[in-house]
TrEMBL record:
<comment type="similarity">
    <text>Belongs to the glycosyl hydrolase 130 family.</text>
</comment>
<keyword id="KW-0378">Hydrolase</keyword>
<dbReference type="InterPro" id="IPR023296">
    <property type="entry name" value="Glyco_hydro_beta-prop_sf"/>
</dbReference>
<dbReference type="GO" id="GO:0016757">
    <property type="term" value="F:glycosyltransferase activity"/>
</dbReference>
<keyword id="KW-0808">Transferase</keyword>
<dbReference type="InterPro" id="IPR007184">
    <property type="entry name" value="Mannoside_phosphorylase"/>
</dbReference>
<dbReference type="Pfam" id="PF04041">
    <property type="entry name" value="Glyco_hydro_130"/>
</dbReference>
<keyword id="KW-0328">Glycosyltransferase</keyword>
<keyword id="KW-0326">Glycosidase</keyword>
<protein>
    <submittedName>
        <fullName>Glycosidase</fullName>
    </submittedName>
</protein>
<dbReference type="GO" id="GO:0016798">
    <property type="term" value="F:hydrolase activity, acting on glycosyl bonds"/>
</dbReference>
Length: 373
């Protein structure tokens, strides 16, 4: 892993004013910011950068009266659901699993909404926090929250994919904006458990491309001795209009059999065009305890045939840095996680936005030379 001179946290839980939250005054119980993390990133027309930050808002006392509680949006407002403690497994701090069913069913310990945070052009100073433009659940398809935005600017318009969570489906939803600040909900564009959808920042010919990551509980084995490991991989899809997506017949990025560091992989930042190829930053997960170790890796993809890999880093680009969380020790509930979700250009560097340990927003300046571009 390389070290970079500009690599710091710029926004965290203490920077969020919950009196201006979409949930404020609507639950009748106290909440706190579990994390302000996994920020989308884009450059606005005024030259500033914009992060769209995932705010995970959690109950101060989720366990009471013999039950654990979850926050849920309804058409009548926000409500609390109570699950008897003897019916759940609360081992993961982010969620709890319901016991006894024929398949895995879970609920979340927080509800996520999205907060636009405007930064200086170098991404290091907060200029404005746009609570009036916050994005919160607005339908049954996202009654448990809106998570992990990614922003791409294509044809002069900003497109933002998000993960929407509900019992109906765990789906990808699309938002659009004409200025990068005011967002409108467009539609559900990928259905159940297709996470980490990132739209390429630019067309190939007349076609939009995206990386997707379908999930499932069953994968077919590669043959013995294969260079690939069966499991979640980064697939490709195409669209004429950002609404209707067709899977690409060619495989995309796949986990390698020779290492456990990328036993599970998924999309990170929207692929950005360089002279040599599309630069894609993605995450690899090494199994460890409940959550695993999340690291950021990179690949350069062919400009015309993005399933072809031109080059890639030999090791992780970014890893979690415990020293960045000094002063936040009382808030830490995960470790060993960096999750890169946004990228923008500035002079001879790329500015990369990441979630650090599901807690805060990290900005890293990485020279373009690190990628050979």
């Amino acid at each position: 892993m390389s070290s970079f001179p500009i690599d710091r946290l710029v926004f965290g839980p203490a920077d969020v004013d919950l009196t201006r939250s979409p949930l404020a005054g609507k639950l009748g119980v106290a909440t706190h910011v579990l994390g302000a993390f996994n920020p989308a990133l884009t450059r606005l027309d005024n030259g500033n950068l914009l992060m769209v930050v995932r705010i995970a808002e959690a109950l101060d006392e989720p366990v009471r009266d013999g039950a654990i509680h979850a926050i849920r949006w309804t058409e009548q407002g926000y409500t609390l659901d109570a699950w008897p403690l003897d019916q759940v497994d609360p081992a993961d701090p982010r969620k709890f699993t319901l016991n006894g069913g024929p398949w895995r069913i879970m609920a979340l310990t927080s509800l996520s909404w999205l907060l636009p945070v405007e930064l200086s052009p170098d991404g290091l100073t907060v200029v404005a926090i746009h609570y009036d433009r916050a994005i919160a659940p607005q339908g049954s398809w996202q009654c448990y929250g809106v998570e992990d935005a990614r922003i791409s600017k294509v044809d002069g318009r900003w497109l933002m994919t998000t993960c929407s969570v509900s019992p109906e489906r765990h789906c990808t939803t699309l938002y659009a904006s004409e200025d990068g600040l005011d967002w409108r909900f467009v539609d559900v564009i990928l259905d159940h458990q297709n996470k980490d959808m990132v739209i390429f920042e630019g067309r190939i010919g007349d076609t939009l491309w995206a990386q997707t990551r379908p999930l499932g509980d069953l994968y077919f084995a590669y043959p013995p001795g294969s260079e690939w490991r069966a499991g979640p991989s980064i697939n490709l899809a195409t669209s004429p209009d950002a609404l209707h997506w067709k899977p690409c017949i060619h495989p995309g990025l796949r986990p390698e059999s020779g290492t456990v560091a990328t036993a599970r992989i998924g999309g990170g930042t929207p692929p950005i065009r360089t002279d040599r190829g599309w630069l894609a930053l993605w995450h690899g997960v090494e199994p460890k305890e409940i959550v695993g170790i999340y690291r950021t890796y990179w690949s350069l993809l062919d400009l015309e045939e993005p399933w072809r890999i031109i080059s890639h880093g030999e090791g992780p680009l970014l890893e979690a840095r415990p020293e960045l969380l000094a002063g936040l020790e009382d808030r830490i509930y995960l470790r060993d996680v960096v999750f890169s979700t946004g990228i923008a250009e500035r002079d001879e560097s790329f500015i990369v936005a990441s979630g650090e340990c599901d807690l805060a927003c990290r900005i890293t300046h990485i020279p373009k030379s690190a990628f050979g571009v």
